[in-house]
Amino acid sequence: MATARDICSRALRKARVVAHGNDAAAEDAAAALEDLNMMLAAWKLAGVDITHVALDFADAFPLADEFEEGTVYMLADRIAHDFRFPMGFDADDFFRKIQAAYMTIAKVTMPAPLRRMPSQYWPNPITRGEDT
């Protein structure tokens, strides 16, 4: 299972901030971790509630393994702007997949008059052949 440090390191490589095989500067890694925490917390506004608590570098990544890659790409897209590197991919597709897996839809109630329209009442004057 990946840690928050793994996610941040991979995102910094995808954003071309850190060359493959090198370690990120402490300041860049801290900025990536802060962005990761903000991004995961903001997902709740989009309907994805993963009950996020702020992560530290050693903490395990809170989502299943299949969501690691998408999170890395979304984080890379988010931090690339800080370093002025345009991204060559669309991270929104990954978020749509995470939304589909984690989105919760609130229970909807409908007022009784909307559930049963007057035309549904029996006996209906129209179906009884009465003049209207």
Describe it.
Helices cover 45% and strands 0% of the residues. It has 132 residues and is an all-alpha fold. The chain has one domain. α1 crosses α3 and α3 (68-83) packs across α4 (92-102). The N and C termini lie far apart (71 Å).
What is the helix content?
A: 40-55%
Which consecutive residue ranges, at least 5 long each, have pLDDT under 50?
none
Strand percent estimate: under 5%
Q: Largest beta sheet, briefly?
A: none
The structural class is mainly alpha
Number of strands: 0
Q: What is the approximate shape?
A: elongated
* Rg: 24 Å
Distance between the termini: 71 Å
Number of helices: 5
The tally of domains stands at 1
Instruction: Look at the structure and give the mean pLDDT.
Output: 81
Name some characteristics of this structure.
45% helix, 5 helices, 132 residues, mainly alpha
Helix-strand blueprint:
Elements: H1 4-14, H2 26-42, H3 68-83, H4 92-102, H5 112-115
Compact description:
Helices cover 45% and strands 0% of the residues. The chain is mainly α and 132 residues long.
